[in-house]
Amino acid sequence: MAISPVDFASLLCSRLCHDLLSPVGALNNGLELLADETDPEMRARCMELLSESARVSANKLKFFRLAFGAAGGFGERVDAREAQVAIQGLLGDNKRLTLDWVIERTELTKSAIKVLLNLSMIAGDALVRGGRLTIGAEDNDGLTEIVLHAEGPRVVLDPELRETLVSGGASEAITPRAAAAYLVHAIAAEAGGSVVVSEGEDGSILFGATLPSSR
């Protein structure tokens, strides 16, 4: 990688801490309120909020474990349904967002799974007012082709993320927010694959990645 392993680990840890701060902070606040609250109705409401925050935190941790960590066992391929569940857990709470899963493959390589998950997170964030995210992947002639189509009333992709996905960006300028984009680029580049990002005439964004299906 153009970025040193230590620097990339720092970027990734910063991104994870940022994303987990809100639900974990809500847990802490809820516990403090619960400790001082005596009204049964308010205590019940606090418990609901605690349960929701705990669920969101768990879903994010499951997603990050698969997207960034060594989840999936010791085999070279991972059940694609694990990725589907992780994406639904991360993005499913957005009632304005519709997820279409059009992957028929039961298994994908670990590299493909990580690319798929990280692109899904980036594409989901780009749908700032909701919309539809279609996620597809298939193997053709020794290659795994991953395609995500994000369409909605307002689709915004930060230029830094676009540049980092396609070219890796300038190592000295990459921020924690772009850690997932850099990981996608690095996995594809190391495998001899590629990443493309293109905009449709309707304002939608198409994310594509090609990887050898054996890596």
From TrEMBL:
This is Histidine phosphotransferase. InterPro entries: ChpT_C, HATPase_C_sf. The lineage of its organism: Bacteria, Pseudomonadati, Pseudomonadota, Alphaproteobacteria, Sphingomonadales. Gene3D superfamilies: 1.10.287.130, Histidine kinase-like ATPase, C-terminal domain. Pfam families: HPTransfase (PF10090). It comes from Sphingomonas hominis. Residues 81-202 form the Histidine phosphotransferase ChpT C-terminal domain.
